[in-house]
Design brief:
With 304 residues, this protein is α/β, with parallel strands linked by helices. It is built from 10 helices and 8 strands. Bound molecules: zinc ion (ZN).
Length: 304
């Protein structure tokens, strides 16, 4: 009995210390969903915020379910940021239960003008949720994050603003650089075939026709008919390469390649694109900006 009591006491001491330490550091506890949003909040929060992302590299947000550990992270958070527009389909319920006067999870997509969004019947929101591929939209996310962090932690508002300014400049530079790379590719070669429809906003920004084998969400699998139809489209348009996505099983794209082959034609797999999740931390694809650069280089390189 005594032993248990001591253990309990030690645990209690340990946890209370942890808590106090966080407070003493004066850091905000921020929980985020997708790795794109995690990276964004880290850029604005700098070393002033503890940012915990729920979804790591290769994780599909459409299918993601909160674990018990996630729930406790969410409960202990000062701020929660998520994409919204029903991207995180299975997390919405958890968020709805959590809403309170002091802590309401913030859907970053709420800052966007609905008239500028691409419509979709696949989602309860009626909009395509893959909005981060429009760099201007991502800039609006950055501004919202800055506002929220500054409201919660007014002492450091100047620092958040400074980080925002630097990050927005980086995003402007990214936008120009991506355009330069895209310009190399003639317009008739700008057809992007991927595992699921994540690149519509990218397509609109850079004049690509975008075709996903699966619909906008990975929750519905592509059927045999979809594969055959898309194979015919690839042959007809003489498309050189199709692309795997890091967060979607590659078998669907491989099936498409097989279907093209069975009709006596050839299409290569042009590489892996990062759509709904970034790559591993510490790699180029591990940040939003690096991911965008990696994707565009892969796409243009394979379609040229
Ligand atoms: Zn998606």
């Amino acid at each position: 009995m005594k032993k248990h009591f001591v253990l309990f006491y030690l645990c209690a001491l340990f946890f209370s210390n942890c808590k106090d330490e966080t407070k003493a550091n004066g850091k905000l506890n921020v929980v985020t969903t997708t790795s794109m949003i995690t990276d964004l909040v880290k850029n604005i929060g700098g070393d002033l915020a503890n940012v915990q992302g729920l979804m790591g590299s290769g994780v599909d947000p459409h299918l993601y379910k909160a674990s018990e550990g996630d729930v406790s992270k969410l409960v202990n958070a000062d701020i929660i940021f998520y994409n919204g527009l029903h991207l995180e389909g299975k997390l919405v319920e958890v968020f709805e239960k959590m809403g309170s006067a002091t802590k309401t999870p913030i859907a970053l997509a709420d800052v966007l003008d609905k008239n500028k969004l691409i419509g979709s019947e696949y989602f309860a929101s009626n909009y395509d949720p893959h909005v981060w591929f429009d760099i201007d939209f991502f800039k609006q996310f950055a501004k919202k994050v800055t506002t929220v962090l500054s409201e919660k932690d007014p002492t450091n508002a100047d620092k958040y603003k400074e980080n925002e300014k630097r990050y927005l400049a980086d995003l402007d530079k990214l936008k120009d650089d991506v355009q330069d790379v895209v310009n190399v590719l003639p317009s008739e070669k700008r057809i992007l075939v991927t595992a699921h429809d994540a690149f519509n906003y990218f397509g609109e920004a850079y004049q690509f026709k975008v075709v996903g084998l699966q619909g906008l969400s990975t929750a519905t699998e592509a059927g045999v008919q979809d594969v055959q139809k898309l194979a015919a489209f690839i042959i007809e348009n003489k498309i050189k390469s199709i692309f795997i996505e890091s967060s979607v099983p590659k078998r669907t794209i491989e099936a498409l390649q097989e279907a093209v082959k069975s009709k006596g034609h050839d299409v290569t797999i042009g590489g892996t694109l990062y759509s709904d999740a970034l790559g591993n931390a510490g790699t180029q694809e591990g940040t939003y900006i690096g991911m965008y650069r990696y994707n565009i280089k892969t796409i243009v390189g394979a379609l040229q």
